[in-house]
Specification:
Layout (H helix, E strand, L loop, with lengths): L4 E6 L10 E4 L13 E6 L2 E11 L12 E4 L8 H14 L3 H6 L8 E9 L19 E3 H6 L3 H9 L3 E9 L5 E7 L3 H10 L5 H11 L5 E2 L1 H8 L3 H10 L2 E7 L19 H15 L5 E6 L5 H14 L3 E5 L7 H11 L3 E4 L5 H12 L5 E4 L11 E7 L16 H12 L3 E5 L4 H8 L4 E5 L10 E6 H6 L8 H13 L2 E5 L8 E4 L16 E3 L4 E3 L6 E3 L12 E4 L3 H11 L5 E4 L9 H10 L5 E4 L12 E6 L13 H13 L10 E6 L5 H6 L4 H15 L6 E9 L2 H18 L5 E13 L2 E10 L5 H14 L7 E6 L5
Parallel strand pairs: 12-17, 12-18, 13-15, 13-16, 14-15, 16-17, 19-29, 20-27, 20-28, 26-27, 28-29
Antiparallel strand pairs: 1-2, 1-4, 3-4, 3-5, 6-7, 6-8, 9-10, 9-11, 21-25, 22-23, 23-24, 30-32, 30-33, 31-32
Helix pairs in contact: 5-6, 6-8, 9-10
This protein binds a DNA duplex through strand 1, strand 2 and strand 3.
Length: about 800
DNA sequence: AGCACGCCGACT
DNA sequence: GTCGGCGTGCTC
């Protein structure tokens, strides 16, 4: 007799169980179970969720050890075999648990929710008195109830006496949303017979059934029925009991799109655009695994190239994945896709609820849509016949996931491109140095758009030296030039966007007598003052407190708020331009769902003269009346202790400048800075990417950073400083003796934020060019950590290819 | 990870 | 003599 065995990866993220376990497939499941199915299994003493990663007919494991699968959770498997392979690759590439790699590909609604349930075993009278009231309603009670009421001790006794038992149940988080509809009986004769049999007193029932006779077999919403026939639920209920119709439950998708969009057509392409499109489509036609870098200046119409390439892909009967950075996933952006491809588009981003995300995912899974537009995780869209993958704004750091698995969407995109033999298009006005270097070495194919699509001139950029302003005695944050420019816009009824680089610019709370700055209790970072609720908040761990009346150090009452947050700039703007209408966009004003869109929409409709904001306004803003962009301080991001700070600054400035004058009216940009001579600022003036690239590459070469060297970052943290330092040292020594001399190891050094959530953090950086043994060696380090160091309270994480240091 | 098993000190 | 501390080891 043949037996069927499934290899299962269980939902337990731990080092010793990071492998598959064999389970017996019960007979009734044999024809249903598939690779990628979710199953419920007993694992040791508990019930857990697992994924079937292989099916086979024999096993090395002694049969008496093997348990059967207890339940199959999906009729259709949730993961394709492509995903299973991808998970193995991710596990190796990012050094994570296989289960984490699998879970990251699915919407969180499909993750398991574990609950402990206590079941009564005997008569309620045999229970200790304290427990009795809990079981008066039902014999099953959630463990949490006892936890809440401090009865765990009594419960433990009861468990020991076996008057109750504890079981772990696995539940699914997400729910398929259903609506109740009425399905009218499809036999006309039956309806006629019923209508004849109805007593003359039941007039409404008669009306309803007669109406149904006109709509035999249809399924419709109860409300339509009531409306059409002027009846009520009671009448319908009666008619249903007679057998004229029945209630059915229908699966529906939650609709995250609030408004309808019209249809738009293809725009005419410039020569450059057509050439780029043609290269991409011919690569699709030849099923080449080719990665393109589409380098097009702001306003050059990259999106139109994407749209037409996707149209071609759909014509070939294939699917398309489009990734955009989270912050630019605005309605303006998604509408462009929906207006072109209508119902064929699913949108995935973090603003959706768990249920909405699940629905969008199901549309893809069930083949109802052909195009996905989404943030990072949309790269795992479960399409089976991908024709093109597009990463817009390829240089964005949001494509890198900052917790496990620490994957980069670009790498996953290229992997999937290889799997499906389809092109991957990386698009940007300011490509990451890594990508541009690869394009230059012909690893990627470079496509260039040098002209703006509608031939608009680039905005004129003026760089203002704030040191000169200071000499002139202007100590405000607005230079004379900027003030004049804003004034002229207000007079001309044109709009201004003011950009504040928030990093290092948030307002802190300072004691004027002793100089103490309020610090977070858990992190080594100063608290940020929020005027809206008069509190100070830690942006890293969420800790908050009311602004103290007296300085905690010297008891002085001279406490003041210091620094330049968006709120402060707003106040100053009102002083300078009392009649200007200002919209502020920052973490405070965009807390509620949809407020982001509302603000942008209001601005687009001309309800304000000035839009003031942080990073989030740098992207996607495209309104014809914006003719001035002001950057209040360009250099705040320049002095961060990160080797990418110059690149980030250049990208940001170019991006922001690109917001001005995208339509008929000419744009102007004013950049204020204390270091106008810095190449990142100077070269962003004319959007000269190439010279910037050359210059920055030289710097990277000299300092030994990417793209010349690869990086790996190991972070060690502990509640005790000494322990953290000691183990960081241990770690470095271990790496030195296990890696070859081709590798340079820097550290240990204290991390940028040396204390976070009450843990002291150290890190060391590994720079290498070629080190084939790096991953195996790091895996050994992880093994050492997971098997020994972890017991002493050490936390260690490895980030291959870190984006921030 | 999370749970059982098992071996030693301080309590009714 | 028993309760409970947490070191060790296993999970198909």
């Amino acid at each position: 007799m043949t037996i069927f065995i499934a290899e299962v990866i269980v939902d337990v993220a731990a080092y010793p169980v990071d492998r598959s376990f064999d389970y017996l497939v019960p007979e009734e499941m044999v024809s249903l179970i598939e690779l990628g199915s979710r199953v419920k299994v007993q694992f040791g003493p508990r019930n857990v969720l697992g994924f079937v990663v292989a099916l086979k007919q024999d096993t090395e494991v002694p049969l008496e050890k093997i348990k059967p699968i207890s339940q199959l959770l999906d009729i259709e498997p949730v993961l394709t075999s492509e995903m299973l392979q991808l998970a193995k690759w991710l596990k190796h590439e990012t050094i994570c648990y296989e289960i984490d790699a699998l879970q990251v590909m699915l919407p969180s609604a499909l993750r398991a929710k574990y609950e402990k349930i206590i079941t009564l075993q005997t008569d309620i009278e045999n229970l200790p008195d304290a427990l009795k009231p809990f079981f008066s309603q039902s014999s099953k009670v959630n463990y949490k109830e006892f936890e809440k009421n401090n009865l765990l001790h009594t419960l433990k006794m009861a468990l020991k006496e076996k008057v109750v038992v504890l079981e772990n149940v696995v539940k699914q988080k997400g729910q398929v949303k259903e609506v109740r509809k009425v399905q009218i009986n499809d036999e006309l004769e039956k309806l006629i017979a019923l209508s004849k049999g109805i007593s003359n007193r039941a007039k409404k029932q008669k009306v309803l059934i007669e109406w149904m006779m006109q709509h035999v077999g249809e399924t419709l919403e109860p409300d339509t029925l009531y409306h059409e026939t002027n009846t009520s639920p009671q009448v319908l209920q009666a008619v249903i009991e007679l057998g004229a119709a029945k209630f059915v439950h229908e699966e529906v998708y939650r609709d995250p799109f609030s408004k309808e969009v019209g249809k738009t057509n293809f725009l005419n392409l410039t020569d450059e655009q057509s050439l780029a499109l043609q290269k991409i489509t011919s690569s699709m036609r030849d099923k080449r695994t080719e990665t393109f870098l589409l380098h097009g200046i702001t306003g050059s119409g990259k999106t139109e190239v994407y749209l037409q390439a996707i149209a071609k892909c759909l014509e070939d009967g294939k699917e398309a994945i489009v990734l955009v950075p989270e912050i630019s996933l605005t309605p303006q952006m998604t509408e462009r896709f929906r207006s072109r491809f209508g119902e064929l588009v699913a949108v995935m981003h973090s603003g959706l609820s768990v249920g909405e995300k699940y629905d969008e995912w199901r549309k893809v899974h069930q083949g109802k849509v052909k195009v996905v537009v989404g943030a990072r995780s949309a790269i795992f869209a479960p399409f089976e016949n991908v024709g093109i993958i597009i990463l817009d704004e390829e240089h964005e750091s949001t494509y890198k996931q900052e917790d496990n698995p620490r994957y980069h969407a670009r790498d996953v995109a290229i992997w999937r491109g290889k799997y499906h033999n389809c092109p991957v298009v990386l698009g940007s006005a300011t490509p990451s140095l890594e990508s541009y270097a690869r394009a230059k070495k012909n690893v990627y194919s470079l496509l260039t758009l040098k002209e703006r699509a509608m031939k608009q001139a680039l905005p004129t950029v003026q760089i203002v030296d704030l040191r000169e302003e200071l000499k002139k005695g202007n100590r405000s944050m607005f230079s004379q030039e900027l003030i004049e420019s804003i004034e002229s816009r207000i007079n001309k009824k044109e709009q201004t966007v003011l950009f504040l680089n928030r990093r290092g610019y948030s307002s802190f709370v300072l004691c004027r007598d002793c100089g103490t700055v309020l610090q977070c209790q858990n992190c080594d970072i100063s608290l940020t003052y929020h005027r809206s609720n008069e509190k100070c908040k830690c942006h890293y761990c969420g800790y908050e407190e009311f602004v103290p009346k007296f300085c905690p150090q010297c008891q002085s009452e001279h406490i003041r708020f210091f620094g330049t947050g968006t709120q402060k700039v707003e106040e100053e703007l009102y002083k300078l331009f009392p009649h200007a209408r200002v919209l502020r966009m920052d973490v405070d004003t965009t807390k509620t769902k949809g407020s982001h869109e509302q603000i942008l929409e209001a601005f687009g409709e001309g309800k304000a003269d000035i839009l003031l904001g942080t990073q989030m306004i740098a992207k996607g803003l495209d309104y014809p009346n914006i003719t001035l962009v002001g950057v209040l301080s360009a250099d705040t991001s320049l002095h961060l202790p990160d080797f990418r700070s110059a690149e980030k600054t250049f990208q940001l400035l170019t991006q922001v400048s690109g917001r001005a004058g995208r339509h008929e009216k000419k744009g102007e940009v004013v950049i204020q800075t204390y270091t106008p001579e810095h190449y990142a600022i100077e070269l962003s003036k004319a959007q000269h990417y190439e010279p910037f690239y050359e210059r920055e590459m030289l710097m990277r070469h000299l300092a030994g950073y990417p793209p010349y060297y690869y990086l790996a970052l190991v972070q060690i943290s502990h509640e005790d400083v000494m322990m953290a330092a000691e183990y960081a040292q241990k770690c470095v020594e271990w790496l030195r003796s296990n890696l070859s001399f081709n590798v340079s190891i820097i550290g240990p050094t204290a991390a940028g934020i040396s204390r976070l959530q009450n843990r002291y953090r150290y890190q060391c950086l590994i720079k290498y060019k070629i080190e084939p043994d790096l991953i195996p060696t790091l895996m050994q380090l992880i093994k050492l950590y997971r098997s020994q160091w972890i017991k002493n309270g050490i936390l260690l994480s490895i980030d291959l290819d870190p984006t921030m240091i």
